[in-house]
Amino acid sequence: xxxxxxxxxIRNRKRKELELRVNTNVxxxxxxxLVCHGTGCTSSKSxxxxxxxxxxxxxxxxxxxxVIKTGCFGLCAKGPIxxxxxxxxxxxxxxxxxCEEIIQxxxxxxxxxxxxxxxxxxxxxxxxxxELNFYKKQKRIALKxxxxxxxxxxxEYIAFDGYKALEQVLLQNNxxxxxxxxxxxGLRGRGGAGFPTGKKWLFTKQAEGKQKYVVCNADEGDPxxxxxxxxxxxxxxxxxxxxxxxxxxIGANKGYIYVRAEYPIAVQRLRxxxxxxxxxxxxxxxxxxxxxxxxxxxRLGAGAFVCGEETALLESIEGRRxxxxxxxxxxxxxxxxxCPTLINNVETFANITRILLKGAKWYASIGTEGSKGTKxxxxxxxxxxxxxxxxxxxxxxxxxxxxxxxxxxxxxxxxAAQTGGPSGGCIPEQYLDTPIDYENxxxxxxxxxxxxxxxxxDTKCMVNIAKFYLDFTVSESCGKCTxxxxxxxxxxEILERICEGNxxxxxxxxxxxxxxxxxxxxxxxxxxxxxxxxxxxxxxxxKEYEEHVKQxxxxxxxxxxxxxxxxxxxxxxxxxxxxxxxxxxxxSGEPGKTHHIDQDKCIKCRSxxxxxxxxxxxxxx
Amino acid sequence: xxxxxxxxxxxKLKKEMEEILQVYQPEKDNLIQILNEVQEKYxxxxxxxxxxxxxxxxxxxxxxxxxxxxxxxxxxxxxGKYNISVCLGxxxxxxxxxxxxxxxxxxxxxxxxxxTPDGKFSIDSTRxxxxxxxxxxxxxxxxxxxxxxxxTLDEVIEKYxxxxx
Lengths: 621, 165
Fold this sequence. Notes:
- The complex is a heterodimer.
- Chain A is of the alpha/beta class.
- Helices cover 40% and strands 14% of the residues of chain A.
- Chain A folds into 5 domains: 10-130, 3-Layer(aba) Sandwich (Glutaredoxin), CATH 3.40.30.10; 154-363, Rossmann fold (3-Layer(aba) Sandwich), CATH 3.40.50; 374-457, Ubiquitin-like (UB roll); 462-550, NADH-ubiquinone oxidoreductase 51kDa subunit, iron-sulphur binding domain (de novo design (two linked rop proteins)); 563-620, Alpha-Beta Plaits, CATH 3.30.70.
- The model of chain A has no long low-confidence stretch (mean pLDDT 93).
- Chain B has 2 domains: 2-70, Arc Repressor Mutant, subunit A; 82-161, Glutaredoxin.
- Helices cover 50% and strands 11% of the residues of chain B.
- Chain B contains 7 helices and 4 strands.
- In chain B, a hairpin with a 2-residue loop joins strand 3 and strand 4.
- In chain B, helix 1 runs parallel beside helix 3 (47-57) and helix 3 crosses helix 4 (61-70).
- The radius of gyration of chain B is 18 Å and the shape is elongated.
């Protein structure tokens, strides 16, 4: 248990110690080696790298060097990442075997290990983090501490103004003012729908009920999205602090974090963070010596996408199948065990302390008219710089994909970007210059969603992508309402027919009609938005659908049944290997002469493609 | 003899389950937390464990079963010694993870959710491991294989096939 004064002492002492993390000009002989311990880098042996560094430093008896595990730096494509501060040297794709050289050359001899420096897309060698194009257009608010502090050390969080906002809120003792500040900042829910956060807090505060709850939605189910995970892994205290502030503001004394069990590192760091906060008296009874009590419990999800929907999540916390409730009543009035409940997403919470410390005006000055602040995106797919990106609202897709993301690999062309996961849509090239915010994205048939942003190049078949998403929704539909349970299944069947070349023209019309019906009739967000990937691809890539249906061709050759396998006469030597391996006797030709595939007989097993020694057989696009 | 052995196993399971359960209050909202722990420990949720949980929480067995079958993390069948899980998150999908899954199925001659007859391998698909920077990704138990190709998959399968017990 610590008093406010003791916390302040820790803050001042630690801050001096950690100045070299944020200030390259600090005069110190000390060096900090930061090793990324996000899920991406951990998957490529960053734990071993950390251990090696520690071992070598001990063996060589080197002083004034500390090795620290941090959260995600963002540029996952270049992982495992090691950064040495204060000089801010950025080493990419480090292996455990490189540690010896880094210590010897960089630390002992004070020279840079050139071969491990990161190269930008144009090939320029970059020494410092800030010099990378990837970071230039970013603005880090929610991710401010990620990659700077050790997430398993509460003192490091405190050093960078941690728990200061909670102190202020408790001292001022004016919940209405806190809610007003959040409302004035213009912050909207980062989980996808974008409901104004201040309003949500106000509604829950005004709701009648002795017992109230705060819930953090960390059930990031959108495949290909990892923003919330990275925040929890890199800066768990920012979420705990914001939840306590929310609890104080709405009059709740208990909070739950519902997090995916598939995120073991995030869960572990949350556990450590809660323990440390309790030990310091920042969570629990009589927080910082006041009368405010707030405890936080972790609840693990068990792999159901629909539990990201707030009422399904509540059902799951209560120990049941995660089936959404019919709204209204909304959770603000009738949530967990029937009590008023405030549910916010991880990223929303991560913004709260910064808003309270820097003011609503500052936050509202960032972004567009209707969407304030920044948004974190998980940039993935066919793009060079895969990673975590935080940009002001209103940044264009082109800036994200080409300036920050470094464009499309292998000299391919941009075809579409998908936002909002299974609830969102595909955005074609013509909208690359649209400023991204809640309104604009829904105008062009997609949605903000939680922040997954998948880039697709011109080798992708959009019908197949739509099928992929629908397949996902069908298997994740909870089964409660008919439009979603049966409707999405029928839609998937139509898409399968299209991809297999068995569709009739009527099918496209049917698909569209069904999609609109489901949008209007499903009871929860999952069902209502499930048709979006289909509708948006039908709108922007109608030609591809028609090619599948009318000409039975898939130009991207991704739909197996429509792929046309051909022999290139220039490369064929007439060896007959393909003829022998073909199970359908579809290949004919004299020895030594060009062979030929009978398309009527071909079953597209692709055995011949693999067998041909001259790479003469392939898909015809 | 065999009968005895089965009894021993059941006794052992019962005892271990009691240890797991005593940590939790006998309240219904702990059901998913308990199931997560059992799944983690045994790799599936044995029928006896289900019955014991239902007794402890004073809820019908059908409700326990209903929750198990709703959540994809819970399984009723034991997984293989090496559970190979291919990521079908969007980031991995656009980078070709479907081809890896197809190859895996044809190599091991089983479908998703099944285990090979010798109990050595089982196949799963997951929605996002969280290592999108390494896409496409598959995992064998907790080991992550990133930037995977059909060829690396073949090599990995061979490696585990030849691994001695």
